[in-house]
Design a protein that fits this description.
globular, 204 residues, alpha/beta, 6 strands, Rossmann fold, 7 helices, single chain, 4-stranded parallel β-sheet, two-stranded antiparallel sheet
């Protein structure tokens, strides 16, 4: 089986000394499956949708670790970048003046309710797309509480919806200076996903 993991810095393995200890790799070791980790620091949720759609025919199983509901993807002539109201573009995304102005505008004028609805819409569209392609998938949240609940989200394949995220699973264990959980946290997340996969009878 081939598994693709997408997410933000908590999937990428930010602050780990060895990124091979990030939860996607640990999960692959437990399952005996081939795993590709396309987590990216500061990733927007719309990026995750795009990546899964682009890679849909290349993998058997998808694990989507959604980021904060406010993170979204944009593009300009210099390429694609992600923003989050209240946060400047990360240095690796080339924070040119116009990008900083866009973040500032969205920070001051965005609508939380709209962004939450867009986040939920992305989840529903992606879950339905994966089902239509007969692909196995698991979704989960990296962090961030959801203000409004959408009953169309399939909780059987959304681990912890709507009250739990990686933050609840890793509460009280060591984190790096930037707030990312370290090796023990990645082990706990991998265990959580692995047990759910076993519950779904995808492995014996």
């Amino acid at each position: 089986m081939k598994l693709l993991a997408v997410g933000d810095s908590f999937t990428f393995g930010e602050e780990l000394e060895d990124r091979s200890l990030a939860w996607p790799s640990l999960l692959g070791n437990k399952l005996g499956w081939s795993v590709t980790n396309l987590g990216q620091p500061a990733s927007g949720n719309t990026r995750m949708v795009r990546v899964v759609v682009e890679e849909i025919d290349n993998y058997d199983v998808f694990v989507i670790a959604w980021s904060h509901w406010g993170r979204i993807e944009f593009a300009d002539k210099q390429g694609i970048f992600d923003i989050w109201p209240g946060c400047n573009p990360a240095p690796y995304q080339n924070p040119t003046p116009h990008r900083i102005q866009l973040v500032d505008y969205i920070t001051r004028h965005h609508n939380d309710e709209y962004l939450v609805k867009q986040y939920e819409t992305n989840i529903i569209l992606l879950q339905n797309y994966l089902q239509s392609k007969c692909k196995k998938y698991i979704m989960l949240n990296a962090f961030g509480k959801i203000k409004n609940l959408n009953l169309n989200i399939n909780k059987e394949y959304f681990l912890g919806w709507p009250d739990e995220s990686m933050m609840e699973w890793t509460f009280g264990i060591p984190k790096g200076p930037k707030g990312h959980f370290l090796e023990q946290g990645h082990e706990r997340v991998a265990d959580k996903i692995y047990e759910h996969i076993r519950h779904l009878s995808w492995v014996s």
